[in-house]
Amino acid sequence: MKFGIKYINRVSVTATVTLTAGAVLAGSAFASTAQAAAPPAPKIVAKGGFLMNDGTGKTLFTKSADTRRATGSTTKIMTALVVLSQKNVNLKSKVTVQKAYSDYIVSKNASSARLIVGDKVTVGQLLYGLMLPSGCDAAYALADKFGSGSTRAARVKSFIGKMNSTAKSLKLKNTRFDSFDGIGSGNNYSTPRDLTKIASKAMKNSTFRSIVKTKSTKQKVTTKSGGYRYMSWTNTNKLLGSYSGATGVKTGSGPTAKYCLVFAATRKGKTVIGTVLTSTSEANRTADAKKLMDYGFKK
């Protein structure tokens, strides 16, 4: 009988040890799975980068996120935001294209919406010309329209002042504008974090969202003689149509800025938004953005 009790106890102990060992192994496997599920932070070519969850504001990735850099045409996000923030802005209001706008494009060898002098173009159409082909002529027209003053120079200065006031209202300490389009005189800068915050604010406007997710558009404008012509614009943002869920936002480039991109995408109700500054090529800025968004959707 004693033998039987010892035998039963030995079996019980063995079973307990086996179960405990199994639990440890299972726990180890679970831990390994959890570790494997955490994606490694991506490596990007751009000198600066930032990514956040647009719904929660949580930071998901940083690389020199607060270092001031030239922003190129990503500046135009603020140009559009200032226009759309005007009280009772009328998107159907018409602006006559001035020779000064086309002269500016030529003198700066700048990107253009190919506006034609004398045409009457609506504010809404100018916003498409600003954000899709990155028209510096469209940016000039909007600054002239929405700035205050008796001369064009005064109105442009006033408009840039509004850009800086808006940056201040967003509590951005590393952002300054000295131009309406990013072609500044050395005092036009921002950071990946600040630009992302500007874009996040702009994306809350339905008109802005609609424009920046548009791959191409054909707009009917009134000519000087009273007839009409069609203007066709294609978005410079290669993410649209090539990255699932991409919703914008804006490309930028320049001798100092190199290649920049502010980007956003939504998948399964989650929106990530971010910026890469000073990348080395168009292809690399797009690849950088894709890496960051892939990472953000896994986080």
Automatic annotation (TrEMBL):
Pfam families cross-referenced by the UniProt entry: Peptidase_S11 (PF00768)
Keyword Hydrolase attributed: yes
Protein name: D-alanyl-D-alanine carboxypeptidase family protein
InterPro entries the UniProt entry points to: Beta-lactam/transpept-like (IPR012338), Peptidase_S11 (IPR018044), Peptidase_S11_N (IPR001967)
Domain Peptidase S11 D-alanyl-D-alanine carboxypeptidase A N-terminal: 39-278
MF terms in GO: carboxypeptidase activity
SUPFAM superfamilies on file: beta-lactamase/transpeptidase-like
Keywords from the named record: Carboxypeptidase, Cell shape, Cell wall biogenesis/degradation, Hydrolase, Peptidoglycan synthesis, Protease, Signal
Family to which the UniProt record says this protein belongs: Belongs to the peptidase S11 family.
Transmembrane portions of the chain: none
Signal sequence coordinates: 1-36
EC category: hydrolase
The protein's Enzyme Commission number: 3.4.-.-
Gene3D superfamilies for this protein: DD-peptidase/beta-lactamase superfamily
